[in-house]
């Protein structure tokens, strides 16, 4: 039996920030170049204001103020994007099906996600399948974030499981590398089919 630790954004839940920005602010993100530039300024590789929001060290007012300064957008434009994020985080059907198969096979499920507190609460209240997870860590609630080693150590201690008995799945190479450096097997996630194939090669699923 293995302990499977899942990232959430772009793994369990949809996360396509470029598409989100183009949908909410078409006047600003009107072609590929403008969309990519806006995404870069808005999220700053999940640093900047959004990184602090993920980490739980600022709340919505400070987030909007910081994003206005970073992007040059109006406050109402920034607020529209922030307000659209919960709906963007829709479950990815094939991943949810994979979670069910892993659970049925007797593996324990956990999550480790960079997620601000309001979005963490939204996901918990909106999706019944989160009850399949034994436990989880959201960055905004512990004021640590991936790929910092400290958040992985915190998660392992909270879950009460040894690193060598875990497999971590995440779509960001830096997070996968951080997990491996701590002795955690890890899968770089691109989609559910690829992840399931790798888990089968690892003997997790028959």
TrEMBL record:
Keywords: Hydrolase. It comes from the Bacteria. GO terms for molecular function: hydrolase activity. Gene3D superfamilies: HAD superfamily/HAD-like. InterPro entries: HAD-like_sf, HAD-SF_hydro_IA, HAD_sf. This is HAD-superfamily hydrolase, subfamily IA, variant 3. It holds the Pfam family Hydrolase.
């Amino acid at each position: 039996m293995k302990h499977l630790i899942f990232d959430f954004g772009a793994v369990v839940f949809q996360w396509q920030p470029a598409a989100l920005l183009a949908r909410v602010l078409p006047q600003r993100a009107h072609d590929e170049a403008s969309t990519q530039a806006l995404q870069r300024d808005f999220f700053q590789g999940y640093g900047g204001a959004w990184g602090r929001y993920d980490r739980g060290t600022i709340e919505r007012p400070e987030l909007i103020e910081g994003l206005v300064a970073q992007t040059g957008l109006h406050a109402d434009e920034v607020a529209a994007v922030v307000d659209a994020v919960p709906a963007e985080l829709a479950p990815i059907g094939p991943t949810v099906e994979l979670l069910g198969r892993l659970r049925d096979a007797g593996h324990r499920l956990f999550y480790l996600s960079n997620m601000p507190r309001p979005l963490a609460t939204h996901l918990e209240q909106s999706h019944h399948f989160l009850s399949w997870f034994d436990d989880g860590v959201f960055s905004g609630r512990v004021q640590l974030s991936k790929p910092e080693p400290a958040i992985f150590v915190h998660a392992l201690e909270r879950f009460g499981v040894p690193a060598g008995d875990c497999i971590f799945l995440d779509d960001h190479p830096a997070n996968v590398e951080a997990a491996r450096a701590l002795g955690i097997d890890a899968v770089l996630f691109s989609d559910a089919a690829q992840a399931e194939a790798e888990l089968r090669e690892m003997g997790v699923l028959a």
